[in-house]
Amino acid sequence: MFTQLHHIAIICSNYKRSKHFYTHVLQLPIIHEQYRADKRSYKLDLQIGDLQLELFSFEHPPKRQSYPEACGLRHLAFAVDCIEETIAYLQANHIEVEPIRIDPITGKKFTFFQDPDQLPIELYERG
């Protein structure tokens, strides 16, 4: 019945700042961008592999309830080929990254950083 995950939607507090973060820092290609005048809201569709990431803006969205254990989405996770290279790239772009950890089940390296609204984003090494 369900064949794959199609997209993930994120609501941001500052559209310009978040658009820059996801398109310039994370380098996700833009599929489509539109301003929805009736909602005074932007919607930006970004490509990440076979998945889409939708970035929405709304006037005065409520803040995330708590970090990171609020009910609902816990974090996004991006697969990377080399975690050390990705961390170096993020740090060169002034993004703070937590120390590397090892998944006790798979033995793979992973870590976390945050988007401009403190949404946790995980890096998970494929290798």
From TrEMBL:
The keyword ATP-binding does not apply. Pfam families: Glyoxalase. Keywords: Metal-binding. SUPFAM superfamilies: Glyoxalase/Bleomycin resistance protein/Dihydroxybiphenyl dioxygenase. Residues 4-126 form the VOC domain. The keyword Metal-binding applies. GO terms for molecular function: metal ion binding. This is VOC domain-containing protein. It comes from Anoxybacillus flavithermus.
